Amino acid sequence: MAADEHVSMIPAASKVGWSAEVNGRGFGDEIESGAILLDVLRDQVGTLGVKRGCDMGTCGCCTVIIDGVARLSCLTLAGEAEGCEITTVEGLATGHHLAPIQEMFSECGGSQCGFCTPGFLLTSAALLAKNDSPSDSEVKSAIDGNLCRCTGYQQIVESIQAAAEILRSDAKSKDGTAAQMDPHPGLGAGDAGE
Ligand code: FES
Ligand code: FES
Hints:
CATH class of the largest domain: Mainly Alpha
Bound molecules: FE2/S2 (inorganic) cluster
Distance between the termini: 92 Å
Number of strands: 5
CATH architecture of the largest domain: Orthogonal Bundle
Radius of gyration: 22 Å
Number of domains: 2
């Protein structure tokens, strides 16, 4: 072997095709086999709102929602999320309208330096999608894997409860609108045709 010939000690990872729906848009690319979802989201998809904090599952900054479930992207292989619906903080707003959870973090002081905020928002959004009337202890339990060095947490719990209140009143007004639009309120399916 020639003296200047380089022999790689670690073989390059092979590439595999990967696709997912990120924030409502299809994304496909080649990724390294064994790639971590956090790296793929930040480096290839470009969703830089997914924060790298500890990179070892202890801070919650990298939380994303995968098929409705809040997951730590630093501990998730991209392959596990293949073909899934992934939501990052960039996908919470609708156009120029912030989601209630974003508005309330801003209004109630749930965010200060903001580094932890994307993770808290996504953990909270996943909780509220399943339960729009959580108790304080359910909120605290949902966010117990998310760390914040600034707020002291009380404002975060208040932000989540304020967002829950908005979601409940939105749901009520939708029910009201549906009832108003129903030409036969009170007529059940079994009554049809009688
Ligand atoms: S970066 Fe994933 S938990 Fe800290
Ligand atoms: S707002 Fe600064 S770490 Fe949470």
